[in-house]
Amino acid sequence: MTIYRRTSVDAALYVLRDIGRDMTKTQRQVSTGLRVEKASDNGAYWAISSTLRSDQSAQSAIRDALGLAAATMGVAYTAVDSAIDLVSQIKAKLVAATESGVDKEKVNADIEQLKDQLRSVTQSASFNGDNWVAIDDSDDPSKPRQIPASFTRFSDGSVRVDTLSYEVDLAPVGSTSSKDARYLVDDRTTGSGEYGALTSQYFATEAGASQNYVMLKGAGNSAGQVEIGVSSSTTEDEVNEMITVVDMMLNQMTTVGSAFGALETRISMQSDFAQSLDDAFSRGISRLVDADMEEQSSRLRALQTQQQLGLQSLNIANASYDTVRQLFQNL
Q1: What's the predicted TM-score (pTM) here?
Q2: Which CATH number does 73-264 carry?
Q3: 317 contacts 12 by C-beta, under 8 angstroms
Q4: Judging by beta carbons within 10 Å of its beta carbon (0-12, 13-18, 19+), is residue 194 exposed, middle or buried?
Q5: From first to last of its 331 residues, what are the pLDDT tens digits of the chain?
Q6: Cα angle vertex 219, ends 130, 229, to 5°?
Q7: Domain locations in the chain as residue ranges
Q8: Is the distance from CB of 252 to CB of 181 less than 8 angstroms?
Q9: Is the dihedral of CA 32, 38, 41, 46 positive or negative?
Q10: Burial zone of 22 (CB within 10 Å; 0-12 exposed, 13-18 middle, 19+ buried)
């Protein structure tokens, strides 16, 4: 007689094989924290999570750009605020120069010091090499300054990067005027300083002044321009003209400062939204691919127990098989 069937042993082996496969899967989920690690785990969820991770990386780059822009705008706004204070002091000095008996030469010495400080403020208002209050030949004032603000994926799969723009930075329409002075200083050699509130002669032109008064001369064509200042020969009418021009400059500088402040606020709001969007992406990806660690840990312990019981069952089955085999050998 030949014994050829080991039903109980085979059953125990099948159970152990299934338990081993489940343990391998569960151990991988516990070690990686992912229930969908590769496409074979769940093709649909893997594809969605891969796209979301790519978009999340793009959003992270947007947040970095917004952070850099916020710092740049902070420096620009601080420069404009300081410049407004300095120009206000110059205006006060000019008013003082209208008083009889005032030594205008000494007043002018104070004005010159304030103008030197103005130049220093505008030149040093640079963050990471980007200066939003002073422009030179590397800048194109006809194009708006833009900041990457958001990354959008549409239902058809196309993507777009939207930007925030400096609202005052608009291309001039028609002839240039004082309203185009949306920076503090225009040092382009190809212009006449018309895009800088401190270097534009259009304030004097629009005020009907007798001379083309500017606070500072730019690096471009400054022929016919006269820097604001007084001397013993300066008439009261000329001082009054300068006061009017300086007041117009201050109004435009306030407009520029307001635009910088509004853009800084918008950047802050967009940065907060981008952070919230990044958190939402993380939660969405987690729901799709992350393993429930408590559940998988409990499952792993249960499978380990089942494996021990399976091994005991296999030992019992093998022992029973050997007993029966020995009985038949003794016949």
Answers
A1: 0.73
A2: 1.20.1330.10
A3: yes
A4: buried
A5: 444 445 666 666 766 777 767 666 766 766 666 667 777 777 887 888 888 888 888 888 888 888 888 888 889 999 999 999 999 999 999 999 998 889 999 999 999 999 999 999 999 998 888 899 999 998 888 777 788 888 888 878 888 888 887 755 455 566 788 888 889 999 999 999 999 999 999 999 999 999 999 999 999 999 999 999 999 999 999 999 999 999 999 999 999 999 888 888 888 888 888 888 888 888 887 777 766 566 666 666 776 676 676 667 667 766 665 565 555 555 5
A6: 110
A7: 73-264
A8: yes
A9: positive
A10: middle
Structure tokens at 228: 């604001």
Amino acid (1-letter code) at residue 112: E
Reading the block at residue 153, the tokens are 């994926």
